[in-house]
Amino acid sequence: MSSQPLRKVVVVGLDGLEPTIVEAMLARGELPNFARLSGDGPVARVATTAPAQTPVAWSTFATGVDPGGHGVFDFLRRDPATYRIDSGLNHYEQKSPLLPPKAVNQRRGETVWDVLSAAGVSSTILRHPCSYPPDRLRGSLLAGMGVPDLRGGFGTSTYYAVEPGAAGESENVVAIVDDGRSPIATRLIGPRNPRSRADVTADVKLARSPEPGVLTIQSPGEPRELQIREGEWSGWLKIKFKVGPLQSAHGIVRFLLIRRDPTVILYASPANFDPIAPLFPISSPPEYARTLAEDIGRFHTAGFVEDHNGLINERISEEQFLAQCEDAWRERRAMMERELSRFDSGLFYCLFDTPDRVQHMLWRFREPDHPANRGRDANPALAGAIEDHYRRGDEVVGQALDHVDDRTLLIVMSDHGFSSFQRQFHLNSWLQREGLLTLAPGGSGEFLQGIDWEKTRAYAMGLSGLFLNLQGREGRGIVRPDEAESLRRSIAEKLSGARDEERGQVSIHSARPREDVYTGPYVDEAPDVVVDYAPGYRISWSSSMGGVSDGPLHEDNLRKWSGDHCIDPAAVPGVLFMNRPFRREGASLQDLAPTILAALGVEKGKNMKGSPLNP
Which domains does the chain have, with CATH numbers? Predict the structure, then answer.
């Protein structure tokens, strides 16, 4: 890096961009703005984290340390005392029933914007994962992945029909009475009452409009009458849920009218915090979210914007999922343009999550033999949907380049790559077969329930590894502390090189004791053994939630969630582009925070492990 500090650093995050797809599209001339950055050189890789998960990887980007230094190891975590599974991104603490709950960020450590703030340099941070509750900083921050919906979860939708059937994943169902003529009285489901845990609802009516295929939602919200058209996403309905005598929760909801006649079928998005009046602060300063919404319009605030659960539950189609993804792109680009147009110094960061979500849900269309295609009609029009979103990413790069001058460092990057997810490995079933996990009579282990803890030495939950049932840590632990290291190494050795005999392939490249993977003050919170799956494989849906399967150890993944990156990190590096020369060999996510700080003439944080990538 030149001895003259730069004035601005602009970071554009495109979550999950896969280097091999970028390279192929560059070779075909389909990414002109990426080509402006790469020149004639190859696409640089940036080593991701173990595990290669969005919240883990971006937390390392922000802090310059591995997960042992920032404490985020997975989307999920467990309370070892109770074996209760919870979010790995944040949690709520309530010291007294008389006091409101307080959100606590699971990501710790000093971020690049912390260091810049201490040096008097401002930052604008848009939708960085694990930034809820929002960090105080010199500048502005809008929290990203980790912000809950109004019910406190990752995203709970509602499905309305005369015969809605059973609820799917993260879904409420509401049965309606519809004679085909009269207005339908029903309700929107909002937050839970913090004391009774009962659903707080708001009454609405659904009335057919004279125009065919149009329904009007009548409510006390804004607007009072919201017209929605069959097959199209509506605008936002602002609605207030009365939680108590002196407390209300303001939410915003969108609708998809799946069918109007002969009887109504309606889909409602998860209720998001209203950015103009959020239940908990989602930005720093707290009024920043309101200011942003007043300038660009209301926007999704929940950490998971793209409604993948609606597609998983087959309530919405792939085309309707992609239409909602388009809205996500428009929102984020509007935010980015607003901020870049007034950005004159410091750090700017904006994350576009959508490429990751599209690849998770539509990877199967790249592979005709993917098990998730079985029994479903092929749609050749969707075969190029992933590449379409890479082209949208290229447009974002062009938008950023329009705001770059000769004193700006532009970084365009992904946190990890992507791969297929065709087969799942039942890790808890493997532990059971090895005599390390025992179910109580009649137990399934789902959500870590029904396990005989007096006879269990190890168990799995989350996407990245397994835990010992350790004395003094787990509530009913039986593994003595002096046994722990040898047991970790024994399990890791047995898992490494595990084979899927049905396919004749290795399903687990390696498994590693945590002390071989992590350093820092939070290593004790990490999984005891980290499992590096081979491309095409991943931990099973059941084992990730603490379940034990009765069938074979390996099983086809039949879900629409058909691509993934929770595999051997060496197999899914991210991409890295800069508008200035940089060290391409050996670049890792830990190097980005030091690179940003060096560019702005600020010394790196005392705990940061990486090194600047620019000369």
Answer: 8-70+107-147+303-413+572-599 (3.40.720.10), 157-273 (no CATH), 422-567 (no CATH)
Element (H, E) at 393: helix 385-401
> Distance between CA 428 and CA 434 in Å, rounded?
10
Evaluate whether 523 touches 108 at the Cβ level (below 8 Å). no
The answer for residues whose C-beta is within 8 angstroms of residue 13's C-beta and 6 or more apart is: 58, 349, 350, 351, 352, 413, 414, 415
Q: Running DSSP on this structure, what letter comes out for residue 321?
A: H
User: Which value, to the nearest 10 degrees, does the dihedral of the CA atoms of residues 284, 288, 292, 297 take?
Assistant: 100
Q: Which residues are CB-neighbours of 574 under 8 A, at least 6 positions away?
A: 17, 19, 45, 46, 48, 57, 413, 414, 415, 416, 417, 589
29: left (phi over 0), alpha (psi -120 to 50) or beta: left
Q: Residue 112's closest CA among 192, 191, 67, 58?
A: 58
- For 453-465, what is the HEC assignment? HHHCCEEECCCCE
Q: What are 251-300's pLDDT values in tens digits?
A: 999 999 999 999 999 999 999 999 999 989 999 999 999 999 999 999 99
576 and 474 in contact (C-beta within 8 Å)?
A: no
pLDDT value at residue 410: 98
Nearest to 203 by CA among 176, 230, 229: 176
At residue 83, φ and ψ (nearest 5 deg) are: 65, 25
324-345 pLDDT, tens digit per residue, is 999 999 999 999 999 999 999 9
Q: Between 178 and 615, where is the model more confident? A: 178
Contacts of 497 (CB under 8 A, 6+ apart): 506, 508, 509, 510
The long-range contacts involving 583-587, CB below 8 angstroms and separated by at least 24 positions, are 583/613, 583/614, 583/615, 584/41, 584/44, 586/47, 587/44, 587/45, 587/46, 587/47, 587/613
For 117, residues 6+ apart whose C-beta sits below 8 A from its C-beta are 123, 136, 137, 138, 139
Cβ atoms of 214 and 228 closer than 8 Å:
yes
Separation CA 198–CA 243 (nearest Å): 10
Assessment of whether the complete model's pTM goes beyond 0.90: yes
The residue type at 267: Y
pLDDT tens column, 73-102: 999 999 999 999 999 999 888 777 667 778
- From the list 352, 350, 330, 331, the residue with the least C-alpha distance to 340 is 350
